[in-house]
Write a structure and sequence with these properties.
about 290 residues; alpha/beta; 12 helices; globular
Length: about 290
């Protein structure tokens, strides 16, 4: 029998989730903006992941991007959209490691400003640019890219509509979409919503694989969970050591909440309920749009 307390908690979760579902990408941008260039966060990310990734956690590294690009044949002459690029570290790393042209797109104007500032003076700067916009409906002409890459950014997008839009952006002989996403194997709770953890993290998950197959892609899935767990552990430890600074720089409540968000990811990994999935989706030869 369902208890009164369980019914109350379920109602609270339903209300909180409905509110979360109503969040537009502009609101996501405002939340992300609040974390830009906070010294304690930047220091923790530099310690855990390297300077390229200050302020941006994805569980990916330049080495991973280089191996991915080699598998998919991205090199000089290819153009890749990094959808949901955050502060742009991975976008710049992709161009630096592969020679391709990379375009980073993010909903947060502050994140894009940080990305542009950090890019200045780097050798790859001529092959990288950033733009503000909705990753699920990017405002680029059809046939603009050889590939679309979305690393740790697919939680707020509706897969069917997003895949349809991304498919129209593709060109060339071997176009591809790559989505790297974490998934927690339990339902979301009201506490998770309070911590602003994205609904798409939790079971039931958005069906990216199904949307890609229905759009005509051949899908290959790999698991990156072990590597991601190590990244989360390093990041949590680095942030925990800076909790007093987080409280001072973000405010006591928000500083503690930021650490608590990462603690959820760490704890779910430790409990074996976290999965990091790489989805590579490729169109058959010649099915991409003509070169722009």
């Amino acid at each position: 029998m369902t208890t009164k307390e369980e019914m109350t908690d379920a109602a609270a979760l339903q209300d909180a989730t409905a509110l979360q579902d109503a969040v537009a990408f502009q609101d996501i941008a405002e939340e992300w903006d609040s974390y830009q260039e906070v010294p304690a966060i930047d220091e923790a990310y530099r310690e855990a992941l390297g300077d390229q990734f200050a302020g941006q956690f994805s569980g990916a590294t330049p080495d991973y991007l280089e191996r991915l690009a080699e598998r998919l044949g991205w090199s000089l002459g290819h153009r890749v959209l990094d959808a949901g690029c955050g502060t742009g570290g991975l976008t710049a790393a992709l161009a630096a490691r592969t020679g391709c042209e990379a375009v980073g797109l993010d909903a947060s104007p502050a994140a894009v400003r940080v990305a542009e500032r950090r890019l200045a003076g780097r050798p790859e700067a001529g092959r990288v640019r950033y733009a503000v916009g909705d990753m699920s409906a990017p405002d680029f002409p059809e046939g603009s890219f050889d590939a679309v890459l979305a690393i740790g950014s697919g939680y707020w997008s509706e897969p069917v509509a997003t895949v349809d839009r991304w498919r129209g952006l593709l060109r060339g002989e071997d176009p591809a979409l790559v989505i790297v996403i974490s998934r927690i194997l339990r339902p979301q709770t009201a506490r998770d919503v309070e911590l602003t953890l994205q609904r798409g993290l939790f079971a039931p998950h958005p069906d990216w694989e199904g949307a890609l197959v229905r759009a005509g892609f051949a899908v290959d899935v790999r698991h990156l969970t072990e590597q991601d767990a190590a990244c989360v552990e390093r990041l949590y430890a680095a942030l925990a050591r800076r909790l007093p600074e987080l409280r001072e720089q973000l405010g006591a409540e928000q500083g503690a909440q930021y650490l608590a968000e990462v603690a959820v990811l760490r704890d779910e990994h430790r409990a074996g309920r976290m999965r990091r999935t790489e989805i590579v989706a490729r169109l058959a030869h010649g099915e991409g749009e003509a070169d722009a």
